[in-house]
Amino acid sequence: MTQTLLEWLGCLTGLLGALLLALNSRYSGYGFVAFLVSNTCWIGYGVLGESWGLVVMQLGFTATSVLGLYRWFPGLRRP
């Protein structure tokens, strides 16, 4: 049950993140938040299924999501 929930939540939030970025609107930056949720779910899914390649890939995607948040939301930057 938990693995299936992580799989579908990771899938849907990943698609939402891609959609938000593709819209190129003032809300597009929230796509990175959706990607972070997706990354977290996929990391959990990968750990439970011992799919270490998936875990490593999602850790890399997490880094790009954090970079996107940093660049999109200037308030997150240190003065």
Lay out the secondary structure.
Layout: H1 2-23, H2 30-48, H3 52-72
Structure description:
It is a single chain. With 79 residues, the protein is an all-alpha fold. It has one domain. Helices cover 78% and strands 0% of the residues. It has 3 helices and no strands. The protein has helices at 2-23, 30-48, 52-72. Helix 1 (2-23) packs antiparallel against helix 2 and helix 2 runs antiparallel to helix 3 (52-72). It is globular and about 40 Å long. The mean pLDDT is 94.
From the structure above, extract its key features.
mainly alpha, 78% helix, 79 residues
Please report the total strand number as a whole number. Answer: 0
Estimate the helix proportion, in percent: over 70%
Radius of gyration over C-alpha positions, nearest whole angstrom? 13 Å
Number of helices: 3
Distance between the termini: 44 Å
How would you spell out the order of helices and strands? HHH
Averaged pLDDT: 94
By helix and strand content, what is the structural category? mainly alpha
Give a quick summary of the entry:
Helix content is 78%, strand content 0%.
